[in-house]
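Hi support team,

I submitted a single chain yesterday and got back a structure, but I'm not sure I'm reading the token output correctly. Could someone confirm the output below corresponds to the sequence I sent? I've pasted both exactly as they appear in my results page.

Thanks,
R.
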Amino acid sequence: MFVSSCLLQYIGLSFPLLAAGGAACWELHKREWRCMKWRKMADHVQGLAQLEILCKQLYETTDTSVRHQAEKALLEFTNSPDCLSKCQLLLERGSSSYSQLLAATCLSKLVSRTSNPLPLEQRIDIRNYVLNYLATRPKLAAFVTQALIQLYARITKLGWFDCQKDDYVFRNVIADVTRFLQDSVEHCIIGVTILSQLTNEINQADTTHPLTKHRKIASSFRDSSLFDIFTLSCNLLKQASGKNLNLNDESQHGLLMQLLKLSYNCLNYDFIGTSTDESSDDLCTVQIPTSWRSAFLDSSTLQLFFNLYHSIPPSLSPLVLSCLVQIASVRRSLFNNAERAKFLSHLVDGVKRILANPQCLPDPNNYHEFCRLLARLKSNYQLGELVKVENYPEVIRLIANFTVTSLQHWEFAPNSVHYLLSLWQRLAASVPYVKATEPHLLETYTPEVTKAYITSRLESVHVILRDGLEDPLDDAGLVQQQLDQLSTIGRCEYEKTCALLVQLFDQAAQSYQELLQSTNSSSADVTVQEGRLTWLVYIIGAVIGGRVSFASTDEQDAMDGELVCRVLQLMNLTDSRLAQAGNERLELAMLSFFEQFRKIYIGDQVQKSSKLYRRLSEVLGLNDETMVLSVFIGKIITNLKYWGQCEPITSKTLQLLNDLSLGYSSVRKLVKLSAVQFMLNNHTSEHFSFLGVNNQSNLSDMRCRTTFYTALGRLLMVDLGEDEDQFEQFMLPLTAAFETVAQMLSTNTFNEQEAKRTLVGLVRDLRGIAFAFNAKTSFMMLFDWIYPSYLPVLQRAVELWYHDPACTTPVLKLMAELVHNRSQRLQFDVSSPNGILLFRETSKMITTYGNRILTLGEVPKDQVYGVKLKGVSVCFAMLKAVLSGNYVNFGVFRLYGDDALDNALQTFIKLLLSIPHSDLLDYPKLSQSFYSLLEVLTQDHMNFIASLEPHVVMYILSSISEGLTALDTMVCTGCCSSLDHIVTFLFKQLSRSTKKRATPMASDDRFLHIMQQHPEMIQQMLSTVLNIIIFEDCRNQWSMSRPLLGLILLNEKYFADLRNSIVNSQPPEKQQAMHLCFENLMEGIERNLLTKNRDRFTQNLSVFRREVNDSMKNSTYGVNSNDMMS
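Hi R., thanks for writing in. Yes, this is the structure output for that exact sequence:
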């Protein structure tokens, strides 16, 4: 029991009884309590003072070492066997709030643990004790009250399906708080907070318990309690608003705030288990259940929140607006057309009222939530519905004025502008589709919004420079997001947008040119004009990128031509000054413009008769796409020449080159340009400074070299064919670099930093070339060039610098690329041993790196991925690529006594065992490389898996079991495939042993023995797979079905028990239907794993899953709370 009677008597406390549950718990003479010994109790009391001292040290001291010691001691206290009784003593006798907080926190950990959980009786006692404690101490410190409420919510959630005498003892949540709500304001606040926290707790998945169990609890709570809680919160808000609360009173203010939070938590509930990212605002639909219709058909609910907004202080208004945002987002299908029109009319009226009385909107939080509310008007309703609202003309005028004013005050709440632009973007995008006869008036207001955005950005430049403010242009993500929205808004009434941009650009460009020619112009004035031009170039790129082919006219293409001509003329002016000075932001804007221009007007799908090209020909003499491409390449070369030390410009420039090299027709035109031939023949640091070695500040800055050589590799391949001389000529700079590194490493005294930089740059270059060479002829040239001459240099580098991931990771990635048989490029002649020789080199590198990296010992958690796991992940990917490449016959290694294969596989096992299970799933790249490698091993090298030691086999099976429930579908699918191969192998071994055929290999026999010794592992995976198929949103059902049949055939008795457990967990009236579902699942299934039998089982499983889901709908029953997979 949670508390002993003698301890209660000693403390001398009695509690007022709140509810039936509490009364039953606290009538101690009706319950059997275990008495503590007085001596033990005295020890508890003696230790109380020490615990309080530790709490103060933890929360109050500024001495880090003291705090660390206190934290360590309290951690030991949390894990001690008598923690439960000591927590109660702290709550009853503790003199500080910190000791009460510690007790509440420790109790939360105790009730949350999955291993050795507390008995039901004890959890009921704790729940009732917490309620009584809160009721008798309404004025605890706020953080203590919050921690105790959190404890109550956690106990209630985890015990939601627990029964005592056919009663779900943890579900009477409204009854639990009723007495709180009938008492003082302080008690009311506690009661409302309990409901609010409970709703929030049940809505949030927790990583320590299965997602399936969370969804069952959340669905049951939704169906049984949530609407009652929402109705209660609305009724209490109505009562509060009708009583003229004194909101200067702190407690009444707090009560109203908690009621609004409760309403918001109800409306923000994850009704259908979409598990969306909380930081995402993209899913704008609230999936309100049909049973809630009455609350939304009644306009008084909507009216309640609009009235509250106008009657309460601005400090509480954001919560009201948050609730309105959710109400405005109610799913469309909740209403029929007439009901939706009526609801929308009330909603728009409320918005109009706020816009007409904007006194609260200067508050940034209010403003932000109101912008979100406006955005929801279009995300959930069609333009055709909005225009039919009675006050639409007035409302759209008010919204346009509000938007223009907001954009003009650019420095106020910049993060809220996204929602306003989102509204106008959606409105503008809908114009071609609207069929209503009523005018939408967007042709009037959209140009005003576009103009306000453009002019406000230009006007901000001077103010930002004058006052030293943070420049929005430095936030590339925010700028790109706004430009994407403006691209659609600006294309509406495009003639007006173009005319404005031409006018503003001409003014800014003329002023800029005059300033440059003037001898007495200040640098500040030049910087202002460059800032204005930067915004204009970004915006021109955006509106060109907003072109939609089916909705564009020749006239609009001609307007695009006008804009492009101006940007190219500006580029010529700025490039001519780069030797003296340049502006990084303006160059980045240029690159953004080129990227948008490339997407729309360069490529295979573009009509070459476009009016844009005609205008370019008239103004700049650019007659066709080839000449335009020469401008692109000229700009790329100029940037690489002058901006080689500026990483943002270099990387974006190289990305543009890479994108151009991907087009089928454009790459063939590019190769004919003299500038491209210059790059192919002169890719050295002399011409491109970013390829230099000594001037690099960081090894990671060399990443862009891979992009550069990928593009060069594609360009080279166009005309390369079988011309080995041309290839050798291209590789000369890299040959020289390799020779330099080889010479350095062959001596004992060399400049280590220089050697590292040269090597890292070289392997990044080669990886780009290897990636681009996806044809056999060209790739074989590269292979013959690098092997056997230069691979020993890479091996030596790994031996020397295995502890430096900045050096070894690029080397390992190059090797992984070289062994990757992409597009079947690795095809050796039948007389060539190169496939085997390449695997030997791969094995040597994996073994060298693996054995050395394991000597590092314990690596700090925050460094473990960069120092160790990243390299291990690349090794796994390398091994997977070479094992599945189909260019090596691995049988020859054992046949001829070559240990290369065994060395690689044994190193894999050593590396694997050095990684905790949690890390395998915590790091996505590691998990993907490991599980894909495991899939190949179980498919083609099962004899190796079968020969492993029992603890290794169990580790691998455990990793598969955990991977089956991974959120990454690719990982989950790989685990299903691996499990299928293992189960099939086991089934075949068992079949052979029963048929008394030739004695199996000793390793196979041992594997079979391990599985027979640990049947629980396979059984656990059977229940996991079945659980996912029945209860979860199974996105890879086919993959899940493949191992399931083998699991069932290997565990027929366990499957029968599992089936009976699931059937018996259903309501009596549904048990027969569930039993029939299982019967149909195995109908026509034979006891073998032949393909035909598997396919029939997969078909049966699809029908089974559909029928089970239909059967379980509207059932609040679930599998026992201890879940069949927990």
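A quick pointer for reading it: Strands lie at 163-164, 167-168. Let us know if anything else looks off.

Best,
Support desk
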